[in-house]
Amino acid sequence: RAGVNMATLTDVLLVTANVGSLFDNIGDIQRDWLQELYKTIQSHKPQFIALHFQEVGGKDYMVNMSHAENFFWDIESSAEMKDYDRVCVYVDADFQAEDSFTALGSMYFIHNTLKNIYQYDFQDEDYKAVSGHSRHVASLNGITTVEKEKFPKNFWPDFKWSRKGFMRTRWIIHNHLTCCPHLFLDLVNIHLFHDASNLIACNSSPSIYSANRKNALRYVINRISDARHPPAPFFLFGDFNFRLDALSLVQEQHLSTSADVQTVKNDNSNEVRIICEERDNDHQVLLHIEEKLFTYLHQAVFREDNGRALLKYDKEVSAFYDVIREENIQFPPSYPYSEEYSQPTQYMNTRCPAWCDRVLMSQTVQKFIHKKEDDDDGKKVVYNTVGPNVCMGDHKPVFLFFSFKTNEGKHLAIKDFTHHLCVLA
After folding, report:
1. What domains sit in the chain, N to C, each tagged with a CATH number?
2. pLDDT (tens digit, 9 = 90+) per residue, 330-348?
3. Which terminal CB of the chain, N or C, has fewer other CB atoms within 10 Å?
4. At what angle do helices 68-76 and 30-44 cross, to 10 degrees?
């Protein structure tokens, strides 16, 4: 393209979506959900699309997993995706394999204008050209173009072992191979641990749940950076379950000096509640917290100005600034939205709204994202939610659209290119 200093731009769309609600409410919201996804694709017209899904099959996955293949097939075969002539689908749907089941699903679409895309084979340690449609929906054992891991059971013995884990693929996303060592990258689908109790989350700052997520994310970064394969720039996008610092929020945010915060224990059930009520104004309750209840009188603060006033309590990603970057967040918390069809912008009173769904990137990737300038024809980087005004389930999908910038250079044979990467990594 003109005006980009001999660089080639490839338009990329990365989407992360916790889709548990779609399977727990079959048919109620899935049609509109898909239409909003297609609108996002049509608006940005990417050449490469990566869709990362978590909680495939929903909470009742043993019953609903049979619908998963139809869901992925609906996307793959839709008229809106007809110009994407190469598709790779990986869905961990083997729930009977309790030791390894993650309920993660990843789909990758390559537009017919994008040539010579290669995918890494982790067994052969070589890049192979992508062609046609490749679909793996069941067990992913023996599929050598994907790596998948469930977090070990002994990580946190005091908490229930769940379907959390990660899945990665490695790609060369470009029209042609060049001598640049940064054309290849890992795309990592990730699902971290949630807050089981609002009350426990309020006990300390940071909370014990935050500490668990920190350990898990550091584990993933170490795993994808270890010596088994040449290190690669990476995108990590999924449901990180990052939460606001609840203790700081309760103590500081919008609680007037004329309000009292008290912990109340029910003598009969031993249930505990945190109540914040005004001393005057008929003792109006500003905040009510129980194990699975978070009722905030001024809920609009989470939507006004995209929740900007609360970003200072979003602290969990900052522990990883040594290796990770993120575009500026300019959208409201992505969770937990109402699953009522008629309330697409309301939050449920179950958890404190938070930016759970994110697209993070290694520092080595960020410098290859093209930033639009006035004198070029590149596109703006967009970091936003899908379907902000439509019921999408309890999570709003989050996407990052950008143009990947690579310098034109000397062509290399694939085996020489791989060797070149190993030398330079």
Report:
1. 8-244+298-406 (3.60.10.10)
2. 999 999 999 999 999 999 9
3. N
4. 30
